[in-house]
Amino acid sequence: MSDNESRIELSLVSHTNVGKTTLARTLLGRDIGEVRDAPHVTTLSEPHEMISSPAGYVLTLWDTPGFGDSIRLAKRLRQRSNPIGWFIAEIWDRWRDPSSWSSQQVIKNVRDQSDVVLYLVNASENPADAAYVLAEMEILSWIEKPVLVLLNQMGEPRPMDVEEAEKRQWQDYVAKFGFVREVLTLDAFARCWVQEFSLLNAVAAALPEFKKPAIRSLQEAWMALRLETYHASTAAISRYLAGLARDRERAPDAGISSSLKKVGRVIGIRKNNEPSAEMRAMQMLEARAVHALRVLTNQLIDTHGLKGRAADQVLKRLAADWRIDEPLNEGRFAVVGGIVSGALSGLATDIISGGLTLGTGTLAGAALGALGAAGIAKGYNIYKGKDGTIVSWNAGALNRLLKESLLLYLAVAHYGRGRGEWSRSEYPAHWGAAIESILAQESRELEEIWSDRSELTVGGRIDQKLANVIDNLLRSSLSQLYPEAKVFTAENGFGVDEKLSVQPE
User: Which of 12, 64, 73, 299 has the smallest count of CB within 10 Å of its CB?
Assistant: First the structure.
């Protein structure tokens, strides 16, 4: 196998200061070159191995200098019978004429090295108003290499129809250039990993037949690498949710006086603002949830090869989402239950300074309520096997935490290394809507899992069911947001029947 057959070379080119090195960092998953807002930051064409396959094939990405004064350059080249040959043969001073020298390096790299050109443009510009694009298209046409146009600087991810409209604008503009094979969205700051498969598919379609074995082998290697990250992320989220579902905190039983204070809170009367035992248990549970979310965020950052650490995240909006099981002893529960039942029946109850005064009618109402309350207490103790007040997350809170973790995954999976230190920003609104609709499809399965949370032992049946639900949710989310990527297919080695195996850390 010759080097020409075993290697595929991609040249990343653009007008100066459009973001080539930033995108290269994102695709390579490591820091290269220098990134700053200035022209001609990259001065030499630099090769970087993007992926290699076990079969010995290599995909190389070249980060090139930016085109300089493209309009003036195209005008000069039109006057030559062999424009590319003349331009490369000339000797330009790197320091006195950096624009011409930079453009020369780009053209030389594309002519001598490139199998496919990745031409990066600023998507926020109207192509008809960016005169340099027409000039650079003309220059690339003389080199006669296949070109893929990549739309950069798209801003935050937006609904598919909005991005498609912007893409069509560029497609219509470059349609007259036969060497342009495809227009793709691939923002350096907000690309998702599934979009990389659209890029590799477009590269494969642009290559000559003798390069097909190489690109197929490299696509498989790239798929394996990205799916390893995906599986690790899904497993981390599964462990996080299962841990929250299993978590519970026991509140000490402070006796009948505490129970009577509790009744006062139920009917709106409080002695003071001191936190109850249940509230202290809630605070401990919440603190563990905050820590678990921070750990999950850091795991996802590490798994995706990013930099940065999660900032403290406060779960104030979940403060009221608790599930309280109170199997007080049957006699005490009967008294408290009877009082509450009487109060709810409209009978007079008066709590004064921790004491209890009952009207004559209240005793009858309380006695009737006590019978039912005692039966409930006994059933609960036998069924739950508890000997105290237990606080845990309820199903509504767990569903909200699940949504939060899916949005967290999408944020980390989108924002690449070009951004530098990872920091979480508010997610686009259409992500939340997509997650909500997908969660609704799994509501019955989730309800069953949360109701069987006592069986959520690591590696157990319910634990595995939770892992599979989270996998389905993430697949559906990514497929809905990026239907053109077609990653989750049996042909790609990731069929819909594949299930995850969640292992303890």
Answer: 299
